[in-house]
Design brief:
Elements: H1 14-32, H2 34-51, H3 60-82, H4 85-107, H5 111-116, H6 122-131, H7 134-144, H8 146-164, H9 168-173, E1 175-180, E2 183-188, H10 195-217, H11 221-227, H12 229-236
Antiparallel strand pairs: 1-2
């Protein structure tokens, strides 16, 4: 499908100029880092295949979080491809959190009521806060699969370091500095095209997408196996 012509007035203000530049960076990343892009495309296709083949599943409630995880993944990939690396890590954190919630509620169906009633009262909100702590969700998944759970925890902490929180690594990775005329000039890079940083972020996106799918495999194991997605996921994770 060809791209639409921009509407009148597009490109005349800084916001639309930035959006165009981000799109140009996306095309450049797609062209220059094809192997890394291919991993992301394969993970996206795996999400789509699973989502479109969940008919008559008893774990229907977890599928809401599957789709939210996929949506978060798509958002994070779009930001990563454009070079908005710290912002992408915030979306990658949300990808993992949606997967953790989906797994937890599949294993603890009685907790759906608690989660759904969050806004009924302050007491109900506090009950959700007490139960749905990220540490609790991680431990629940680690009890299911210790090795995979360890990978999820490490990647979750990595998202926090690199952008999901305003931490040092997120800042320093996008910080530029110049000297001249007796002055020091600092610059924050909004669109990072530095190849090593971009490639590592793309690989982290692939790792996190794969980990999210692995958590949903623990919920939909038979469906994964029947659709051939278990083998597909193993193949996609090679080299990550």
């Amino acid at each position: 499908m060809p791209l639409l012509e921009p509407p009148p007035g597009w490109g005349r203000d800084e916001l639309t100029k930035f959006i165009d530049l981000a799109a140009s960076n996306t095309y450049a990343t797609f062209h220059n880092l094809k192997a890394d892009y291919s991993k992301l495309s394969g993970i996206d296709a795996t999400f789509y295949k699973l989502i479109h083949n969940l008919y008559n599943t008893k774990d229907w409630f977890a599928s809401f979080f599957l789709m939210r995880a996929h949506s978060s993944f798509l958002s994070a990939v779009r930001l990563t491809l454009s070079g908005q690396i710290p912002e992408a890590y915030a979306g990658l954190r949300l990808t993992l959190e949606n997967a953790l919630y989906g797994f937890y509620l599949a294993k603890n169906p009685a907790s759906r009521h608690t989660w759904l009633r969050r806004h009924d009262s302050e007491q109900a909100k506090q009950k959700v806060r007490n139960e749905f702590r990220i540490r609790t969700l991680l431990k629940t998944f680690q009890a299911e699969d210790a090795a995979e759970g360890s990978a999820v925890e490490n990647l979750y902490e990595r998202t926090i370091d690199y952008g999901a929180h305003p931490n040092e690594r997120a800042l320093s990775q996008s910080l530029g500095m110049g000297r001249g005329g007796g002055k020091v000039r600092f610059q924050i890079i909004y669109l990072n095209g530095e190849r090593s940083a971009l490639r590592e972020a793309l690989r982290d996106a692939a790792r996190i997408g794969a980990c999210a799918l692995a958590m949903f495999r623990a919920v939909y194991k038979e469906r994964f196996d029947l659709l051939g997605l278990t083998a597909t996921l193993q193949q996609l994770r090679q080299g990550l």
